[in-house]
Design a protein that fits this description.
The structure holds two protein chains of two kinds.
Chain A lengths: L6 H10 L3 H23 L2 H17 L10 H19 L27 H4 L3 H24 L3 H13 L3 H8 L3 H21 L13
Chain B lengths: L6 H8 L5 H12 L2 H15 L5 H7 L7 H8 L5 H12 L4 H33 L8
Helix pairs in contact in B: 1-3, 5-7
Classes of the chains: A mainly alpha, B mainly alpha.
Chain lengths: ~210, ~140
């Protein structure tokens, strides 16, 4: 049953029933942002439109796997990103990344402090998705709390530290904070994340950065 | 040379979600930097092993992205100042590809609306004034 409070879920339900008008609505609603996303990389209108076209076809073919609890826009962007990557590879612009060989430190990786081999912790996609969702839910709660307190600086700080990967000193410089303040914010945030991981009974080995 | 990119940025590269100019910079560097290729390969290995990173989860779930409505308000300059500052930071300092694409789409829609609006206005001005045109001169 689609969630009646989620208009995208209702739209997708209509598309699943083969209603052309619903499909037309989805295209009209999302094609502009998808085109802007692709065109910012390709810079060529015709090629960008081709990739967006492939994205919509990709959406229809992946429809049986789409969980309507997941935001539709993010799902479409992720398909567009894959189609864009495929296109850039075909063009020879994006070199293929070799997969890990598992034979030495360059490719193989094992969680710190674990006696188990990487293969023993290779788990199903479903399990990985549940872990990902549990941490995302906890993070979202924390970010929403900061938002409600108008504490945008902490969001900026964590985004620069974890999403961009900058060091404390660089973050302090960008946000006009002291390094000590950044270190304190980071300490509290990591503690919060560790609590989330423990609370969800997740394997700590698969979140190594929380224990570094 | 590969050290010019952080691990979080390389993770974003794998997901095609780094800002455009950084995507291009990684692609260019990859052509003659074996260390960079090795770092990326290692990251793929970590993912294969089931390792999570906060940055990847944050990006994938778009945890701090403004909503489409908030982006619209930002464009119209009606967001509260602190919130608007954050959105600017997210768009410019973080360079969120998805939000920048959404904002660009909104800009184009607004421009199209302006065009429609001006067409409507011209039509209205014409219709309400045409009767005053004098044909006896």
């Amino acid at each position: 049953m689609p969630d009646s409070s989620n208009p995208d879920a209702l739209l997708v339900e209509d598309i699943r029933q083969g209603k052309p008008e619903a499909w037309n609505n989805l295209i009209a609603h999302y094609e502009g942002r998808l085109l802007a996303f692709v065109q910012s990389r390709l810079r060529r209108r015709a090629a960008s439109e081709d990739v967006v076209q492939e994205t919509f076809i990709g959406f229809l073919t992946s429809l049986p796997n789409y969980d309507t609890r997941r935001p539709l826009e993010s799902w479409l962007f992720s398909i567009a990103a894959h189609k864009l990557t495929d296109y850039l590879r075909r063009e020879g612009r994006r070199p293929a990344i070799p997969f890990s060989t598992g034979d030495d430190s360059s490719g193989a990786w094992e969680p710190a402090g674990s006696a188990r081999g990487a293969s023993s912790i290779a788990r199903s996609g479903e399990r990985h998705g549940l872990e990902d969702q549990a941490v995302a839910d906890g993070l979202r709660q924390q970010i929403d709390r900061w938002r409600s307190q108008d504490d945008w600086q902490k969001i900026q700080c964590m985004e620069l530290l974890f999403v961009v990967g900058l060091g404390n000193k660089q973050v302090a410089g960008q946000l006009e904070l002291s390094e000590q303040q950044v270190a304190n914010f980071k300490f509290d945030f990591l503690e919060r994340l560790r609590t989330i991981v423990r609370g969800a009974r997740l394997n700590e080995d698969i979140f190594p950065e929380l224990y570094e | 040379m590969s050290s010019q990119f952080t691990t979080a940025q390389l993770e974003a590269f794998l997901d095609e979600s780094l800002p455009d100019e950084q995507m291009t910079a990684v692609e260019a560097a990859l052509r003659d930097d074996p260390d960079l290729a090795e770092r990326l390969s290692s990251l793929v290995g970590r993912r294969d092993a089931g390792v999570h990173t906060v940055g990847a989860i944050w990006r994938r779930h778009r945890l701090s992205c403004p909503t489409r409505e908030q982006l619209g308000s930002f464009l119209l300059e009606v967001l509260p100042e602190k919130h608007a500052q954050y959105v600017r930071f997210h768009l410019e300092a973080i360079g969120c590809r998805y939000c920048n694409a959404s904002l660009e789409d909104l800009r184009q829609q607004h421009a199209a609306t302006d065009l429609d609006d001006s067409r409507t206005r011209r039509q209205k001005y014409f219709q309400t004034s045409a009767g005053y045109l004098s044909s006896d001169k």
